[in-house]
Amino acid sequence: MAAGTAEVIAAAPAEVLNDHRGNPKPFFEMPLPYEAARLGTAFHEAGHAVLGMAYGTRVVRSEVIAWTTDTGWGLSGNTAFEARGTQPWHFAAQCAAGEVAHIQYLLAYGLWTPERALVCAADHDREQAIDVLDQFGYRLDRDRVPEGGKSWGMVRGMARRKIGYLWREIRTVAHAMNERTVLTGDEIAALTGMTNPVFEGDAV
Q1: Burial class of 193 by CB neighbour count within 10 A (0 to 12, 13 to 18, 19+)
Q2: Which of 90, 99, 173, 179 has the fewest CB atoms found within 10 Å of its own CB?
Q3: pTM here?
Q4: pLDDT (0 to 100) of residue 42
Q5: Cα–Cα distance for residue pair 115/50, rounded to 1 Å
Q6: CB 65 within 8 A of CB 13
Q7: Which residue in 103, 92, 100, 94 sits closest to 151, CA to CA?
């Protein structure tokens, strides 16, 4: 596998094109050159990985995935993790962290516009958080505060605050991921000085 920011595969894997329910994800064109858009995707995945690790989730790997299309290129990413005993609201904030880190990248690098910010929306992450929390009896709503629960806006606020504390680590991981394409959780831990949990029964 070639390394570096030029790596583009011929077609997107099916698991990138579909959400956790098996439905096609919506894709929107990011109005940026390829290199800047790719780095933004790396920030998205780094947000998931770093917040997940900070909340005690084991990160298996995190990656940027680029593929060719009829009109140029497509971009997505994937962060694989094991969450055992993660506090449900922390899990939800981890899901929100990708979108929030992506927008923060645009702001920090002087690239923010309303149009670009809209493209950062990751509804599949929100829907996964809603479905997972529902299994544990936690109420997470898209646009209102349900009784005894939280809205997605509140969860995004949780992620935004944590990202503020961990921005250096997210930036480090994003640039390394952009260069190498794939990072293991242990590589992320080595880059950041964070701990990637090892659960009982896991091989070390």
Answers
A1: exposed
A2: 179
A3: 0.90
A4: 97
A5: 26
A6: yes
A7: 92
